[in-house]
């Protein structure tokens, strides 16, 4: 997987790296384009897009780009470059819009990261190729792709509760919803072909949509 990385995936990775490096070196640039509730509500809607190309550190950037590298080729290869880009950017915006709703009463809340877009691509890839296995760093045995995807989402829930760092953990959930919904919308036969995987991946999304706001009070 990923031996011949798709050009669209490569361009997205390069864009993330270049913009993130600029933000890490230039705090004014980071402040101008990061996600911030008050600024977005005041009319700076461009932050819904630009914040998805910024990262707080190289580990944050590396983890997101590694996940995109692993799963992006599957989506672009099976659905085409155009649909890959649709899912990527819809997931990015869905993640930030969910974050805007979740933190609506916190005008100074801010975050950055491609987490929403990558979550959408991860969910899309699992829907398209439920039998995938991954070899991850320091783990000598293959891990089912859906285990990684669900683990990624569970970590997001933990991050939402603890508000770890300046990372958009709530964007993971919104992005997963966007990727999940638009993959099924663009490829309706998946409902029948991968019915059990559709049900499995929908469970945490449904539970979080119902009980997500209660995370703040736990």
TrEMBL record:
<keyword id="KW-0378">Hydrolase</keyword>
<feature type="transmembrane region" description="Helical">
    <location>
        <begin position="192"/>
        <end position="212"/>
    </location>
</feature>
<feature type="transmembrane region" description="Helical">
    <location>
        <begin position="135"/>
        <end position="155"/>
    </location>
</feature>
<dbReference type="GO" id="GO:0004252">
    <property type="term" value="F:serine-type endopeptidase activity"/>
</dbReference>
<dbReference type="InterPro" id="IPR050925">
    <property type="entry name" value="Rhomboid_protease_S54"/>
</dbReference>
<feature type="transmembrane region" description="Helical">
    <location>
        <begin position="6"/>
        <end position="25"/>
    </location>
</feature>
<dbReference type="GO" id="GO:0016020">
    <property type="term" value="C:membrane"/>
</dbReference>
<dbReference type="Pfam" id="PF01694">
    <property type="entry name" value="Rhomboid"/>
</dbReference>
<feature type="transmembrane region" description="Helical">
    <location>
        <begin position="107"/>
        <end position="129"/>
    </location>
</feature>
<keyword id="KW-1133">Transmembrane helix</keyword>
<comment type="similarity">
    <text>Belongs to the peptidase S54 family.</text>
</comment>
<dbReference type="InterPro" id="IPR035952">
    <property type="entry name" value="Rhomboid-like_sf"/>
</dbReference>
<feature type="domain" description="Peptidase S54 rhomboid">
    <location>
        <begin position="43"/>
        <end position="186"/>
    </location>
</feature>
<dbReference type="InterPro" id="IPR022764">
    <property type="entry name" value="Peptidase_S54_rhomboid_dom"/>
</dbReference>
<keyword id="KW-0472">Membrane</keyword>
<keyword id="KW-0812">Transmembrane</keyword>
<feature type="transmembrane region" description="Helical">
    <location>
        <begin position="74"/>
        <end position="95"/>
    </location>
</feature>
<feature type="transmembrane region" description="Helical">
    <location>
        <begin position="167"/>
        <end position="186"/>
    </location>
</feature>
<protein>
    <submittedName>
        <fullName>Putative integral membrane protein</fullName>
    </submittedName>
</protein>
């Amino acid at each position: 997987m990923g031996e011949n990385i798709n050009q669209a995936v490569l361009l997205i990775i390069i864009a993330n790296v270049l913009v993130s490096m600029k933000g890490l070196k230039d705090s004014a640039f980071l402040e101008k384009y990061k996600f911030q509730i008050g600024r977005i509500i005041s009319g700076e809607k461009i932050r819904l897009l630009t914040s998805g190309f910024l990262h707080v550190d190289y580990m944050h950037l590396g983890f997101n780009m590694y996940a995109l590298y692993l799963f992006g080729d599957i989506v672009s290869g099976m659905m085409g470059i155009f649909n890959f880009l649709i899912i990527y950017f819809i997931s990015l915006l869905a993640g930030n819009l969910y974050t805007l709703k979740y933190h609506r009463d916190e005008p100074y809340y801010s975050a950055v990261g491609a987490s929403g877009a990558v979550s959408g691509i991860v969910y899309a890839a699992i829907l398209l190729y439920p039998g995938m296995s991954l070899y991850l760093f320091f783990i000598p045995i293959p891990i089912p792709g859906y285990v990684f995807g669900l683990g990624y989402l569970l970590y997001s829930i933990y991050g939402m509760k603890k508000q770890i760092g300046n990372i958009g953990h709530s964007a993971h959930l919104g992005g997963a919803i966007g990727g999940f919904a638009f993959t099924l919308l663009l490829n309706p036969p998946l409902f029948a072909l991968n019915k059990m995987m559709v049900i499995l991946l929908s469970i945490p999304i449904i539970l979080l949509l119902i009980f997500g706001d209660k995370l703040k009070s736990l």
